[in-house]
Amino acid sequence: GESVGLHLPTLSVQEGDNSIINCAYSNSASDYFIWYKQESGKGPQFIIDIRSNMDKRQGQRVTVLLNKTVKHLSLQIAATQPGDSAVYFCAESGGSNYKLTFGKGTLLTVNP
Amino acid sequence: GAGVSQSPSNKVTEKGKDVELRCDPISGHTALYWYRQSLGQGLEFLIYFQGNSAPDKSGLPSDRFSAERTGGSVSTLTIQRTQQEDSAVYLCASSLYRGRYEQYFGPGTRLTVT
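^ Those are the sequences you sent over. The predicted structure of the assembly is below.
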C-alpha cells in the first residue's frame, strides 16, 4: 500500500553542523507534506510544511525540499543545536483533505 | 493560548479492564484526531472527528476501541477489555477545520497494560 518511509532511522551530528533528514513517499496523489519534531515525552510539534506546487520552503533555520520526480522530501536544519535533538517525522496528505500519513521517524542526536 | 491537553498522562491497567482517555482540543478547532504511537514507531491514525459530521473510524484496530466527541469539543477514547498489545502512547491532535492539515498535538497518554 501507500506509505511514507525514511531512509535513515538515526542521525548523529556535531553541534553547529547542518543536518539533513530524508523521507521518501510513494503516494503520487499527496499534495501536502509536513515535518514534525517530537521530543522525548512530548507530542509532535509542527516544524514546517510544503505544498506540492512548491520545491522549497524556508523557515527559521529549517528548509524543506520537495522533489516530486523521485518522490523525495528532505528537512535541512542549519547550525544544529543540542535542542534540536529529537525524533523527526515526515507526513503526507496521501490524497486526503484531512488525514495525514506519518513515517516512522528519524532520531536526530546532536553531539556537543 | 492553551494547547491540546490530555488526561491522564500515564495509565497503568490490568489486562481485561476498560480504560478511558480524555482529550481537550484547542478552543475553536473543529477537527480532532486520535493516534496511537507504539515504542519507536510512527503515528497510527485511529479516528477523526469533524464538527457534527460522522467520524472517520477507519483506523480503529478492533471493536474494543471506540471514541466520542461531545459538544464538538472534548473527546474520549475508550478501550474495552484491554490487551497487552494496546500498550502505547495515545496522542490527540486538533486542527482548525477540515482541509487545514496542520495538526496540533497534545502530550499524549502513556497506556501500560499489565
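Chain A has a mean pLDDT of 90. Chain A touches chain B at residues 4, 32, 34, 36, 41-46, 49, 89, 91, 93, 97-105 (CB under 8 Å).

Shout if you want it in another format.
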